[in-house]
Amino acid sequence: MKDLKRENTPTEKQNPIDRLAYKGDLGVVVDRVAGAYEIGSPTNFSVIGVGYEDCNVVIQTADGKYVAKIFSKDRNQEAIARYSTIMEKAVEAGVNHPPLIKTSNGEVVYSDPQANGVSMVLMQFVEGQTFLELNSVPDVKEQETVIEQAAKVNKIDYHPPYLFDTWAIPNIKEMFERIKKFIEPADLKLIEKAMARYIEIPVDTLPHCFVHGDFTKANIMRGNDGKIYILDFSVANWYPRIQELAVIAANLLYDEGSGLSLRDRTERVLEMYDELNPLTPEEKQHLYAYALAGIAMEFMGGHQEKFIKGNTTEETEYWLNLGRNGLRKELSK
User: Fold this and answer.
1) Which of 8, 187, 267, 293 is the most exposed place for a label (fewest CB within 10 A)?
2) Domains of the chain by range and CATH?
3) Per-residue pLDDT reduced to its tens digit, 200-232
4) DSSP states of 182-236 as a string?
């Protein structure tokens, strides 16, 4: 698996700054952010290149290091309020998320009237590396911690307004129709096999709850302080509870060099999670097919980014290779 730190110069479609409803000097925005949150004068800032949504900016001041998540022009005020509420509730529930910083007015969200009203939240910067950057999977103890965090997330008593996410597993049919013409015939057959299994799942009758929805290597961090941190609640929704476990098994615990199959990984996740939040027989029965659909969505999501959105980046190739290899390993037998 490749480390996704960008070394190439971003093209227009790759550059996170182009996602903003603002085309001016980002430096002056950073200065105003620092003033609004009272974190001291910035000495340096940099844009994080990985990811397809929003614009994340690391800000260094004499007082410390912070991350500003500047919301993209595709998010309206309702969506921004939804996201900030979710982050606050996650922190309140004891989820290991980077601490949120409030403005001098006690607000989590700051909107810059001099930058076309772009809105953002500010968090403490946590020193560490995601498991994508580490090119590894969590060890056994870390896996237990991740599952504990997932259980905390799933117990959050919040039913957010529905947010359509093209990558979410329940939207597999819509994704398939959108990108099927771009997929090679042999790979198309693998996706159709995964979809056939998913369609048999009684999704609507499975237990639903608040779900982070993206417990991937890119969003789980091993902090330098030894803690595990959960990042990026941007696609959190009210979903079948096993969606959380499916993503963990399909992505976070995937190791190309390991002999563990997806079936092995789902059994491991079931065993750990069931001790904290007992699962129903139906959830246990259908997790494998749900996780298999998750792999198919990674593969199709990569096609969407490359052929529809024009994101021909290393990150897109990562998703394409991950999905293709995962499907072939499970279904080419």
Assistant:
1) 8
2) 16-125 (3.30.200.20), 130-331 (3.90.1200.10)
3) 999 999 999 999 999 999 999 999 999 999 999
4) GS-HHHHHHHHHHHHHHHTS-GGGS-EEEE----SGGGEEEETTS-EEE---TT-
